[in-house]
Amino acid sequence: MPLPPDAADGTAVAPADARRLSRVFLDRLRDLDEGTRAHQYTRNTLIEMNVSLVKYVAGRYRNRGSGDLEDVVQVGTVGLIKAIDRYDPDRENEFTSFAIPYINGEIMRYFRDTSWAVHVPRRLQELRRALVTASELLASRLGRDPTAAELSDHLGVPREEVVEGLKAKAAYTAASLDTPSAEHDGPPGDGRALAETLGRHDTRLDLFENLHTLAPLLESIPARDRDILRMRFGQDMTQRAIGLELGISQMHVSRRIARSLETLRAGLLED
Questions:
Q1: Per-residue pLDDT tens for 56-65?
Q2: Using CA atoms, how far apart are residues 186 and 94, in angstroms rounded to an integer?
Q3: What is the rounded CA–CA span in Å between residue 113 and residue 71?
Q4: pTM across the whole model
Q5: Which of 73, 84, 33 is nearest to 51 (CA)?
Q6: Of 42, 115, 120, 142, whose Cβ has the fewest other Cβ atoms within 10 Å?
Q7: CATH code of the domain occupying 5-114
Q8: Protein fold of 122-179
Q9: Could you tell me the residue ranges of all domains in the chain?
Q10: Distance between CA 105 and CA 222 in Å, rounded?
Q11: Dist CA 142 CA 151 (whole Å)
């Protein structure tokens, strides 16, 4: 397959051509002896041609708040090199699909090791990573978050160190309130800072207050009416099903529900 004259300079290859040419160079790399000049040239050209892929992945971390973008690209290039060395051209998957997880993995490892808001000893950084893995594993087994004692038993480290490691997790990142927010109702790029999105009214607080007020009011209505409300709104039963359950007509159920709701509504408004 003939190569364009600018293929010798991998950085000059357009991204659209890089995917096609990478396949050619990967096939050639497999047939070359490692350590030879031809092998080194082909490998270096592959790296140069796919730097744009590294920059694309690195761009996702532009607002991560730690490290210069150029540093992130250099770290991602390490992942690209690993992908080049491990890719098997005989497989059906595209090289880009194969390389992105390697690039992304190296970048995430870089942030994992450097993105600490305050200085934390290396042993606590390593313990934090172990705690994250152990917490996920135990949570899947227990159906809840594990306690410090359970994490201690699982990892075989003193409980005091586990507690210290859990505290260290809080020092992992610290976002600036001036950071542009990605979650708001305005148009993209309107420059709205994170601080401007905080302090919103939480409607769940109103729900909590209403339920707190409603609890004693429920005790003021007859037990049979409470049962009807529980079946209707707690068990999502139809009025007809409730009537069959209690041996009364559907109309009678409807009237008792309406009367109970009116009593509860009046109590809430009065309160």
A1: 888 887 766 5
A2: 38
A3: 13
A4: 0.42
A5: 73
A6: 142
A7: 1.20.120.1810
A8: Arc Repressor Mutant, subunit A (1.10.10)
A9: 5-114, 122-179, 203-270
A10: 62
A11: 12
